[in-house]
TrEMBL record:
<dbReference type="InterPro" id="IPR002314">
    <property type="entry name" value="aa-tRNA-synt_IIb"/>
</dbReference>
<dbReference type="InterPro" id="IPR006195">
    <property type="entry name" value="aa-tRNA-synth_II"/>
</dbReference>
<keyword id="KW-0436">Ligase</keyword>
<keyword id="KW-0648">Protein biosynthesis</keyword>
<dbReference type="InterPro" id="IPR004154">
    <property type="entry name" value="Anticodon-bd"/>
</dbReference>
<comment type="function">
    <text>Catalyzes the attachment of glycine to tRNA(Gly).</text>
</comment>
<dbReference type="InterPro" id="IPR002315">
    <property type="entry name" value="tRNA-synt_gly"/>
</dbReference>
<dbReference type="Pfam" id="PF00587">
    <property type="entry name" value="tRNA-synt_2b"/>
</dbReference>
<dbReference type="InterPro" id="IPR036621">
    <property type="entry name" value="Anticodon-bd_dom_sf"/>
</dbReference>
<comment type="subunit">
    <text>Homodimer.</text>
</comment>
<feature type="binding site">
    <location>
        <begin position="376"/>
        <end position="379"/>
    </location>
    <ligand>
        <name>ATP</name>
    </ligand>
</feature>
<keyword id="KW-0963">Cytoplasm</keyword>
<dbReference type="Pfam" id="PF03129">
    <property type="entry name" value="HGTP_anticodon"/>
</dbReference>
<feature type="binding site">
    <location>
        <position position="218"/>
    </location>
    <ligand>
        <name>substrate</name>
    </ligand>
</feature>
<dbReference type="InterPro" id="IPR033731">
    <property type="entry name" value="GlyRS-like_core"/>
</dbReference>
<dbReference type="GO" id="GO:0016874">
    <property type="term" value="F:ligase activity"/>
</dbReference>
<keyword id="KW-0030">Aminoacyl-tRNA synthetase</keyword>
């Protein structure tokens, strides 16, 4: 695929064509930055969620799950700081009348410098061949070091300015870097202003008595306010975690990049409650554990990196992002934050109720510290989908579009194809195979077109296996099974199909790679 912009356009168009993601309310010309997951997308999304849940909750005997309500008492958001400080720094271009996030404009500028570093690496790799040492090159090449120093200087200054709420300096930085409006090329900017991202709504039948509420902008607070309920009813001992997945809502003024930044999105979060003073070791533990989970899916180690925060939230004492290489560059996929005791203490203060843990071993009560892991399910979907979409040159000088989804996540695990759709005996046996396999796997039936075209269709849909039923199948109970990634075909017994598929798609097989 030619360049990153072209690849991203192909990702978006493929997602629609093959029933993964549709524009919301498309018959009414759509709703900006809101998307619907279609018949295949909903399965892929569910499989990602299940893969996370199994690794996070089922495989850890000290982590449990909850499903907190989207509506919460409005004081929750006062206590958490969202009412007063949940803002994005926005800037308008006076000529194009377009609005942008100031920090994203600066980050995109730095991403262009990163692209220059990548070009230097590619040139050097070509020049030195097998003798090329990427780490050594990055740490010694003068031009690369200059680029990296420029990036670090820019991001450090931006982080400090945002932390100090010095919005005038953020604008000054944009002007000094001569950042132009991506659409019009104009450098005629307004001042930077803060904009609160929460959606307001009302609870109650009467306008006079209705209570002002917010749609939750994150799922974490539902965990914090339930900390003591879960701890007591589950008789949990510290350290322990509470996990949940669910919808959150942010009034993103500058929503873009398909499902990467949406107004309605889904999070997968785990808050791990620990003894004060132990946060350093647990921060290290969860950094390693979460990266291993990502790597278990086989999307390529080079596509991940840690990015430590220049600007820490006032309550945090450590924070890092796991960034993924999307078609539009490295961007945040998951955050790991050491949140200290800020959240529980805030809810204690605003509710007037104690949210402390009594440690029987030390015979003392204390407010636990919290270690958070938070990943966007929609971003994870985009990471998996965009990485999987590939165009391959074949030996016969043709190309095929193939969606090489990790088999454990693929919406359909196998497609059953009768060689001739008008042959009733073949159709009957195909349906019998489906009836047997569908208890364990999501399977599909495909009878239209020549078998070669059906293979291509299932490749593009991400289906790991195609099972062809032919005349020989009626004689000896064997079928041809074709593997999506290698296109290899083998003759196997129908009774062996379940074991063959299970070996490739079983969650245990994949998570054991961690």
């Amino acid at each position: 695929m030619a360049n990153n912009d072209d690849k991203f356009k192909k990702v978006i168009s493929h997602a629609k064509e093959y029933g993964y993601v549709f524009q919301s309310s498309e018959v009414y010309d759509g709703l900006s930055a809101v998307y619907d997951y279609a018949q295949n997308g909903v399965e892929l999304k569910k499989n990602i969620r299940d893969y996370w849940w199994k690794a996070m909750v089922q495989m850890n005997d000290n982590i449990v799950g909850i499903d907190a309500a989207i509506f919460m008492h409005p004081t929750t958001w006062k206590a958490s700081g969202h009412v007063d400080a949940f803002n994005d720094p926005l800037i308008d271009n006076k000529d194009s009348k377009k609005r942008y996030r100031a920090d994203v404009l600066i980050e995109d500028y730095c991403a262009k410098i990163e692209n220059k570093i990548e070009k230097e690496v590619k040139k050097a790799a070509k020049r030195f061949g097998d003798a090329f040492n990427k780490e050594e090159f990055l740490s010694t090449n003068g031009r690369v070091l200059g680029y990296q120093e420029k990036i670090n200087t820019i991001l450090s200054r931006m982080g400090k300015s945002l932390e100090n709420e010095d919005l005038a300096d953020v604008k000054a930085l944009i002007e000094e870097l001569e950042i132009a409006d991506p659409l019009s090329g104009s450098k005629n900017w307004t001042d930077v202003k803060q904009f609160n991202l929460m959606f307001g709504t009302k609870l109650g039948a009467s306008a006079d008595s209705a209570m002002d509420l917010y749609l939750r902008p994150e799922t974490a607070q539902g965990i914090f306010v339930n900390f003591l309920n879960v701890q007591k009813t589950g008789r949990m001992k510290i350290p322990f975690g509470i996990a949940q997945t669910g919808k959150a809502f942010r009034n993103e003024i500058v929503a873009r990049q398909f499902i990467f930044r949406m107004r309605e999105f889904e999070q997968m979060e785990m808050q791990f409650f620990i003894k004060p003073g132990s946060q350093g070791e647990w921060f290290k533990h969860w950094k390693e554990a979460r990266l291993k989970w990502h790597l278990s899916l086989g999307l390529g180690e080079d596509n991940y990196r840690f990015h430590d925060h220049e600007k820490l939230a006032h309550y945090a004492d450590a924070a890092t992002d796991i960034e993924f290489k999307f078609p539009f560059g490295f961007k945040e996929l998951e955050g790991i934050h050491s949140r200290t005791d800020f959240d529980l203490k805030q809810h204690e203060e605003y509710s007037g109720k104690k949210l402390q843990y009594f440690d029987h071993e030390d015979n003392e009560s204390y407010t636990p510290y919290v270690l958070e892991t938070s990943i966007g399910l929609d971003r994870m979907f985009l990471a998996v989908f965009s990485n999987a979409l590939q165009e391959e040159e074949l030996e016969n000088n043709t190309t095929r579009t193939v969606l090489k989804l990790p088999a454990v996540l693929a919406p359909v695990k196998a497609a059953i194809l009768p060689l001739v759709r008008k042959d009733e005996a073949l159709v009957k046996l195909s349906k019998k195979i489906i009836d047997d396999l569908k208890w364990d796997f999501s399977v599909a039936y495909d009878e239209k077109d020549a078998v070669g075209r059906r293979y291509r269709r299932q490749d593009a849909n991400g289906t790991p296996f195609c099972i062809t039923v032919d005349g020989e199948s009626l004689e000896n109970n064997t079928v041809t099974i074709r593997h999506r990634d290698t296109m290899e075909q083998q003759r196997v017994k129908i009774e062996d199909l379940k074991a063959i598929i299970k070996k490739e798609v079983d969650v245990k097989e994949w998570l054991m790679r961690m």
